[in-house]
From TrEMBL:
SMART domains: Mterf. Belongs to the mTERF family. Keywords: Mitochondrion, Transcription, Transcription regulation, Transit peptide. GO terms for cellular component: mitochondrial matrix. One of its GO terms (molecular function) is nucleic acid binding. It is found in: Mitochondrion. The keyword Mitochondrion applies. This is mTERF domain-containing protein 3, mitochondrial. Its main location: mitochondrion. Gene3D superfamilies: Transcription termination factor 3, mitochondrial. It comes from Chrysochloris asiatica.
Length: 383
């Protein structure tokens, strides 16, 4: 569930530097904002070519009209590259509609990008599928040498190509880090694992799993990681506890600052009415208590109380706080339809993932539908 809250990949960098002066890290799409000062006349050759490709030019004009004003575009060249990869007309039209910036990317740079992505894709068909789903990530053609070095580094680290290709589409920013920066963060994670008592034999598996779950951990600084670990130790968590929290939170633990953690812990301690040791137990059962900010925790506890669930019940099953009030209401209604009252029992059947809840619900339903006697057994009747 925590992964669903996962931060999304941030805006891509510039794929094309316009002739006017643009700050180096200006948001990618801002280059083509219709609010910018632009020439009055569209490039008719570009517009006509896009119409022939069945591209919705009106959509581009409405959302990223600046692209159509560029003097130098490469529509035919980009289309040729996509066709050589096996993309058909509808796929190409969809790509250009959602990422019209592609037509101002240098064909040479796009060829280089294609070769880089092919190095981690099993087939051209898979590559076309990825470009169709994430065209903005593919047509980010800056820092290509840095991207290449990072791909090589991740491969040498032991990450599978399928994971690296997922990173390219969902976490492209990590490939724009200097490779030395990513190497430093990896080294810091390895040292942290050793310092927390992790075994050398399991370190590689642990590290690769952590990265595959949360590649954004590479955007953290070494200082922030050490600060968070030191703060948790001050709160009384042992090295083994912190290692457990780190694994369960999929590395998001390092993205939390001491202030955020302190606020969440103080709130839970007051509302759930528990001691320091009791709170530690709750956090180890439900690490999300550290992750969720106070407003989220407050909303969820209020929702549970509204449904008639007591604070002692929440303390016994803190995992219920991973559910939104809407999910709690829906699940209680389903259980109530079977005559099962959460208010009088444990919250175990309410908690868990959707799959886990449905499995528990089916068991309760089956048990509810069983006959009270065996219908095929002979009846004992007095004559």
């Amino acid at each position: 569930m925590l992964w669903m809250l996962l931060m999304r990949s941030q805006a891509c960098r510039l794929c094309y530097v316009r002739k006017r002066l643009i700050p180096k890290y200006r948001p990618f799409l801002a280059c083509f904002s219709t609010a910018d000062s632009q020439p009055d006349k569209e490039n008719q050759r570009t517009v006509e070519t896009l119409y022939k490709l069945s591209v919705d030019v009106r959509k581009i004009r409405r959302l990223k009209g600046g692209v159509l004003l560029e003097d130098d575009t490469y529509v035919e060249e980009i289309v040729k590259i996509l066709r050589e990869l096996g993309a058909d007309g509808p796929v190409i039209a969809s790509i250009l509609e959602r990422c019209p910036e592609a037509i101002v990317c240098s064909p040479t740079a796009v060829h280089t990008q294609k070769e880089l992505w092919q190095s981690v894709c099993k087939s051209e068909g898979e590559l076309v599928k990825l470009i169709g789903q994430f065209p903005e990530a593919f047509f980010t053609v800056t820092d290509q040498e840095t991207q290449k070095l990072n791909v090589q580094f991740f491969q040498e680290l032991g990450l599978k190509n399928v994971i690296i290709s997922r990173f390219l589409t969902t976490a492209p920013n990590i490939f724009h880090n200097p490779v030395e920066t990513n190497q430093r963060v990896i080294k810091m994670l390895q040292e942290s694992y050793r310092n927390l008592g992790g075994s050398e034999a399991n370190m590689k598996v642990w590290l690769l799993k952590l990265l595959s779950q949360n590649p954004f951990i590479l955007l953290n600084s070494s200082a922030s990681v050490k600060e968070t670990m030191g703060f948790l130790q001050e709160l009384g968590f042992t090295n083994l506890d912190i290692l457990q929290l780190l694994s369960k939170l999929k590395g998001f633990l390092f993205q939390l600052g001491p202030k955020s953690i302190q606020n969440s812990i103080s709130f839970c301690k007051n509302v759930l009415k528990c001691t320091d040791d009791g709170l530690k137990e709750l956090v180890l059962k439900c690490p999300a208590l550290l992750y969720y900010p106070v407003p989220v925790l407050e909303e969820r506890i209020e929702g549970l109380l509204k449904e008639g669930i007591s604070i002692p019940q929440v303390r016994d099953a803190p995992m219920v706080l991973e559910l939104t009030p809407q999910i709690v209401e829906y699940r209680m209604r389903k259980l109530s339809s079977l005559g099962y009252s959460i208010k009088d029992g444990h919250l175990a059947n309410l908690s868990g993932t959707k799959k886990e809840f449905e499995a528990n619900f089916s068991k309760i339903q089956d048990k509810k539908g069983r006959p009270v006697f065996n219908p095929v057994a002979p009846l004992s009747v007095d004559e």
